[in-house]
Design goal:
393 residues; Aspartate Aminotransferase, domain 1; Aspartate Aminotransferase, domain 2; globular
Length: 393
């Protein structure tokens, strides 16, 4: 089928929840994708911080196909080897003792919200159910997770949202101290706000949040759906601060494009989930967990996180050079390969011009270009994009 007929058919049969550009992506390899007309694009979106190993990584393809020949699905009524091995890897390489697998980041956050409330309910503190979230945060599109999201545009049209969520400014420990109380069961926070504009906290902010939670007896939930699995230059973003959460959520890069989410928790908290208290039919299926385990092994063995740290620093340096040349660039901020460039003009026209020149980038909050390329990206691709942006600006 030709591009025009594919797009026309899509407009008739697919729900119109996304505004897509007039292109159809057909294949990808590494950091490059190709459309149906044969044009190539260097991908600085990576499926929204998902394809950390790039497209069609041979190791992930091999693991996926190998497991597909053995076993697709039996549900969580039974043990399966890939799921156990993936959970073990995550526990061994994080603060956590237990893992709950699901299908997406929203489901992982949904599980975290439920676990926090269940934990205090089970301890006889039924009045302790409120959760504090951050302004500009993004935690998902289910009713609970959009209720926990600190952006009105995400909630528009879905009133009434769920009760029990309070909001304070991100990176403001005094505001949190004034809001947290004996009715607070948890604080949920992204260590770096991604959808909110790529906003990094002050160096001691997360430590202050941890202390406030401990003082109030509340749980601390880190939403690492976008920051986890190497994106910030460490395996998990919480490792930059030296602060451990009680609960952490993962998704996106965990499956390198395959649908998987995970909620990790410490034993004393995770034990609140007993038999039948939470469930999922498709979470942690053999095929998906086998592929995700291979993703993690490759990231570790090939030192992908080290490349992310080096290339992230290089990318920041080049974008700051752009800022020095163009007054329309207000600010460059980020960590690792999670970087935002805020403009004083609308970002969408720049996104379109980049695409015309063979680069995929995306815009958030109206005027911030977000760069989340595969973690295998190199200087050559970064230089090419920066030169493109320099010409456009």
């Amino acid at each position: 089928m030709k591009k025009k007929s594919i797009i026309e058919k899509a407009e008739k049969v697919i729900a119109a929840t996304y505004k897509r550009p007039p292109m159809v992506i057909k294949k990808g390899k590494g950091c490059v994708v190709w459309d149906t007309e044969g044009k190539s694009y260097v991908d600085f979106v990576a499926g929204v911080a998902v394809c950390s190993l790039g497209h069609a990584h041979p190791g992930v393809v091999k693991a996926l196909c190998g497991q597909a020949k053995l076993l697709f699905h039996v549900s969580n009524l039974y043990y399966t080897i890939p799921q156990v091995e993936l959970a073990s890897w995550l526990v061994e390489n994080s603060f956590a003792d237990r893992v709950f697998f699901c299908n997406s980041g929203a489901e992982a956050n949904e599980a975290a919200i439920k676990l926090a409330r269940k934990y205090f309910n089970g301890n006889g503190e039924k009045g302790r159910y409120r959760i504090i979230s951050m302004e500009r945060s993004f935690h998902g599109r289910t009713m609970a997770t959009l209720s926990a999201t600190g952006q009105d545009k995400i909630k528009k049209g879905y009133d009434p949202v769920l009760e029990g969520f309070d909001f304070v400014p991100f990176n403001d420990a005094k505001a949190l101290a004034g809001k947290i109380s004996s009715s607070t069961c948890a604080v949920i926070i992204e260590p770096v706000q991604g959808e909110g504009g790529v906003r990094c906290p002050d160096p001691d902010y997360l430590k202050k949040v941890r202390k406030l939670c401990d003082k109030a007896g509340a749980l601390l939930i880190f939403d690492e759906i976008q920051t986890g699995i190497g994106r910030t230059g460490k395996l998990f973003a919480y490792q930059h601060s030296g602060v451990e959460p009680d609960i952490m959520t993962l998704a996106k890069a965990l499956g390198n494009g395959l649908p998987i989410g995970a909620m990790l928790a410490k034993e004393h908290v995770a034990s609140a989930f007993g038999h039948g208290s939470h469930a999922t039919t498709f979470g942690g299926t053999p095929v998906i967990t086998a592929a995700a385990l291979e993703v993690l092994k490759i990231i570790a063995e090939e030192k992908i996180v080290d490349n992310c740290s080096r290339m992230g620093a290089y990318f920041m340096k080049k974008l700051l050079w752009l800022k020095s040349r163009h007054s329309s660039v207000r600010e460059v901020r980020g960590i690792g390969l999670l970087i935002g460039m805020e403009l004083d003009v609308e970002g969408e026209p720049l996104v379109n011009k980049c695409r015309e020149r063979g680069f995929l980038v995306n815009c958030i909050q109206g005027n911030t270009l977000r760069f989340v390329p595969p973690l295998i990206i190199g200087r050559k691709e970064i230089d090419a994009l920066v030169n493109c942006l320099d010409e456009i600006l």
